[in-house]
Amino acid sequence: MYDVIFLGDSVETPSLKQLQVAPEAVTSCKGKVGEFFLRFRVNGEVHEEKTRAIVINLPHQQEQSFADLPVFRENLEPEQEKNLIFIQDHEEIAPAYVNRIGLEKALQAIRDNASRQVYYFYRSLRFTEGTDQLYEEARRSGVAFFRYEEDRLQISPPDRLTYQRGGATMEVEGKIYTAPLLKPAPELEKLAQVLRIIPGEEGYLQAENVYLAPTLTGRRGIYAVGGARSPNGLAGFEEEIKYTLEEIEAFKFNLEPLVEEDREVDDRKCILCYTCYRVCPHAALEENKEKDSMEILKDACWGCNGCISHCPAGAISLGGEEEEERKWGLQVLMCENSAETARKKMPRENMDGFISREIPCSCSIKKEEIYGSLQEPEDRILILGCFEESCKHLEGDQRGQRIVDEVNETLASLDLGEDRVRFERLSPPMEQDLANLLKRWREGQL
Ligand code: SF4
Ligand code: SF4
Predict the structure, then answer these.
(1) Which end of the chain is less crowded, N or C, counting CB atoms within 10 A of the terminal residue's CB?
(2) Which residue's C-alpha comes closest to atom 6 of ligand 1?
(3) Is the CB of residue 79 less than 8 Å from the CB of residue 109?
(4) Ligand 1: does its nearest atom lie under 6 Å from the Cβ of 315?
(5) Quick check: CB of 280 below 6 Å from ligand 1?
(6) The domain defined by 263-318 carries CATH number 3.30.70.120
(7) What is the pLDDT of residues 33-88, one digit of tens each?
(8) CA 335, CA 358: separation in Å to the nearest integer?
(9) DSSP 3-state assignment of 199?
(10) Domain residue spans of the chain
(11) Ramachandran region, residue 226 (left: φ > 0; alpha: ψ -120 to 50; beta: rest)
(12) CB-ligand 1 contact for 282 (6 Å cutoff)
């Protein structure tokens, strides 16, 4: 088991056992914080490694703001005498990281040749630790800073610009360098899908509470740093990676759940429709093959209850909630798309003596649940599904019929009674047929 797997660049971590994996090689990631199973390909071979945490560390994608003009990171021109012009934020507010590159470059230009005139046009400067000193130093060294409003700067590539402030207009000529546009690393989109992390609007992986713990993603135990985190991910990289590695170190010994109340999936109700798997923003649900049901990974759950409200079978609840007292006898399970609609239009007294329940589809009933509801010889179950052509769940009625047939066969082979479970079809306008059916079933005429 590794303590941390780096996707992208690794960082020295003497106290943590680590592995580095190319982000494009990752094919799947199961499990939860403290125990992820990461699959990836190396030379065509599939590997799987276990790790407590994953850190995604990638540089930004940097693009030119103007097709014809070089960006900050390019080497300075060898022509020592030429005026130099730096433009930051021409289109958007540039992040602090870009701010630092530009200031360092302007300072270097002056140091290389003090007789050179260096102009720095900006719409906004972002200061983080270190960049405020760079700014002061650049000022003192003679770099001329000009703040501009949008549309008050006209650039005429390759080496001219016009600057307007108040009623004054200034024309400047020199080699122009512009701030690069930063974009999320190209691998992030696919990585987000494979790791089941919902990216932000701009495509970065940071979670919402960026101020408290900026490197958290929506999936607990997976962190995004640098160009995977945000446009500013590289500005505070040192502190952010330090905090991240300390947190990974800490939960080696103490991993507390995030919420007090557990959410639980009732495996008798779960129809494995994968709705909860898709809606959970924290990748906290996985299929449990042994139980043939979905399962909540407790340490990964943030308690948002999205799964509870979306589960079509009502299979997820807060743990500790009182189980309804179970009663057996004549039980009627009605599909919400047909019989349940008919029941609502039928006089209530027709249901007297029956224990009834709405189900999302007749196929959503499990054999184990049926056996569990047939405790006494007089217990019987009537399952009411849709007609073949109107089932909304892709042949759900046929699957329901099959389940009932198999249950009856098993019960008969064990001498536990014949036809204790019945399957019938109805449509929503058949309330009178439903009333007749129930009457006949109660009287043992079915
Ligand atoms: S409550 Fe449900 S949807 Fe929300 S995090 Fe937990 S498992 Fe996911
Ligand atoms: S949404 Fe409900 S029924 Fe569907 S897989 Fe999840 S727990 Fe099971």
Answers:
(1) N
(2) 301
(3) no
(4) no
(5) yes
(6) no
(7) 999 999 999 998 999 999 999 999 998 888 777 777 888 877 777 666 688 898 88
(8) 6
(9) coil
(10) 2-58+184-250, 62-182, 263-318, 330-442
(11) left
(12) yes
Under DSSP, is residue 399 helix (H, G, I), strand (E, B) or coil? helix
Strand boundaries in 263-399, DSSP class E: 263-265, 285-288, 293-296, 316-318, 330-335, 355-359, 380-385
Cα of 49 from ligand 1 centre, angstroms? 26
Second CATH level (architecture) for the domain 62-182:
3-Layer(bba) Sandwich (3.50)
The CATH architecture that domain 2-58+184-250 belongs to is: 3-Layer(bba) Sandwich (3.50)
Rounded (to 5) percent helix, strand, coil in the chain:
25, 30, 45
pTM over 0.85: no
Distance 140 CA to ligand 2 centre (A): 65
Residue pLDDT, tens place only, 98-110: 888 889 999 998 8
Q: Among the atoms of ligand 2, which is closest to the Cα of residue 360?
A: 3
CATH architecture of the domain formed by 330-442: 3-Layer(aba) Sandwich (3.40)
Helix (H) or strand (E) holding 2: strand 2-8
With contact defined as beta carbons under 8 Å apart, do 7 and 54 qualify? yes
CA of 312 to the centre of ligand 2 (A): 7
Are 69 and 177 within 8 A, CB to CB? yes
Q: CB of 224 closer than 6 A to ligand 1?
A: no
DSSP at 307: H
